[in-house]
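S1.2 Input.
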Amino acid sequence: NFVLYDEICAFDEQTIYKARRKGTINFLAISCIDKKKRTHVTNHVRLIRALKHEIILKFYEWYETSNHLWVVMDLCTGGTLDRMLREDKLFPENAIVEIGRQLVSGLQFIHSSGVIFADWYPTRIFLDGCGNIKYFDFSYSRLENEKSSGILSSNTSGEFNFDGLSHSALAYTAPEIIGGMPSTKISDVWGLGCILFRMFFDATPFFSQVTSHVCIT
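S1.3 Output.
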């Protein structure tokens, strides 16, 4: 039903393409996701269907083929916030203020809807062609009244395993989450603050190539 064009980005075992619905001139984005991520996809779909706001990327449908799950959504030509951070490194103050304003506005809506965003890695946020922020990936999010089993656990080798959030989100994860507490509205504010910090300094507040070092810090 769709024609795929250029790859927009790839991360966390999913690839997002520019696409067009056959028989129309409507261009969309389609995320191709490994089937082993089904739990994450179904969680994303159930939450984003209920979140109707201009700062939430519009979701259309999802379907599956023999090897993949496919999520159809609005096309954002600005790419991910992570890509922009990697390209520009440091941001001027006026840009940080505008992006921060949009991030806060979106988070206020998400929280008012009873949802904890939870995973603040900047690939979870898109920008449209006008530079407007779009929250788009709720794979690791949850309803505020739902129980969370914690983020990290330690195995016998002393290495850390994620039980909830993606590994890439660790540098944006609040200390209490690393300590095993569930994500909350307050930990969401921490994650947003880490993104703003990165815009100012081209680094997250706590960073190491070794996962356990970040946890100890």
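S1.4 Remarks. The mean pLDDT is 85.
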